[in-house]
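Re-run with default settings, no changes from the original entry. Doing this only to confirm the output is reproducible before filing.
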Amino acid sequence: MTVQDLGILLALLGASLVALLLVQVARREAAAVREQATQDVAEVREDVKRREAESRQRLEEARETERDVADQRRRAEAATERAEALVLDTEKRQREASDEMRRLRAQMLSQLEATAGISREEAGARLVDELREQALQDASTRVRRIEATARQHADERARRIVATSVQRLAVATSSQIAVVVLALPSEDMRGRIIGKEGRNIRTFEAVTGVNVILDGDSRSVQLSSFDPERRELAEVTMRLLMDDGRIQPQRIEAAYADAVAGASSRTVAAGHDAAVEAGVQRLSPELIESMGRLRLRTSYAQNVLRHSVETALIAAAMAAEVGADVDVARRSAFLHDIGKGFTGAATGSHARLGALLAERSGESSAVVNAIAAHHGEVDAQSVEAVLLQAADATSAARPGARHDDLDRYVDRMEQLEALVAGHPGVRRVLAMASGHEVRVVVEPSEVADSELDELATAIAAHIEKDLAYPGEIAITVVRELRAVATAG
């Protein structure tokens, strides 16, 4: 045997040993797996048995529960039957008790009616009347208490609102006076106004119908007249003359004619200025012109245009305090006396005429109603209309705003002029010097020079008969005949 064969033999022996070892290991692993499988099968069998036992127990419990439920259902049905029987019995007893109660009540009512001497209906009516009377008394007492409390709070707030509105008002006084004072631009202007032998001042008074007062040491000239239109025309005429510097009779008449011609533009300008001051916008031209005419109107010595501006400012302040419509309150208050600008041809109260004019000019229904209702002639339909009434009264009640002396004076002057103007041939009448002088201008074609004394005497006798006046009244009758020719 060679070495090579020996090596092969050894290799085969080694391989056999390795194979044997592997077989032994595999057998041990197989035995372990078999043992583990046996244990697992045993555990599964035990679990199955346990689950079967639990299922049998649960099934038994379910059957027991079902038997209990059936017993409870039978007991509930029996209880329901007993309850229904009890309800029927109770209802029967209640019906019997109700019948007995009605019988006893009827018997008692019969006995009460017999004892009281009145029927059930009469007793019920008396009880209702007593309860109603008591309720009315309680309600009336409570209402009076609430009204008293509300009135107290309302009065306090109203006073606060009026006080606040008046405190915020900062305008010039609206009281009207019968004198206009103009400053003289120079010392020699006094002599020019008087003229040679007083002809200029006499011409000025005759043309304008106002009294001219010039004190010797004064630096102003005063124009006095009860008629505001005459005062305005005289003021404009005097300003034109002082600006021009040439003062003589012909120039006075020309300046007066210019003043008369510019009256319309002054009216429109006054209306625009008042609207701007009151804060009122978008007024129609007709309303502007009508408001401008109020500058020549007075009510208890209060200038109506100034009063309208005051009332608009007060009403706007009040509306802002109470949360009302400020624009409606301001607008209606500014226009509330616009009806006073109408001439005597229009009929109706100034509130009605003003409302019609405002409606015709496209003002809102709230403004129209406030104007018509500001003297209570119609019912106020808005808070702004009530505020207008309060603002109107507040402006009129301001200290010094109104007094009736000037109105009585103006009425007396107008009566005097109307009485004298009724004589035939009279063209123009001017009451001057507070009614102590009357200048009468007659038509030259109707009254001759020889009739002037007779006319003056007749006028004096008429005044003595029909008018009551203090002191004396001087009547001056003027007959002026002019002839104008042009040469060249």
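The CA atoms of residues 422 and 459 lie 10 Å apart. The two ends are 190 Å apart (CA to CA).
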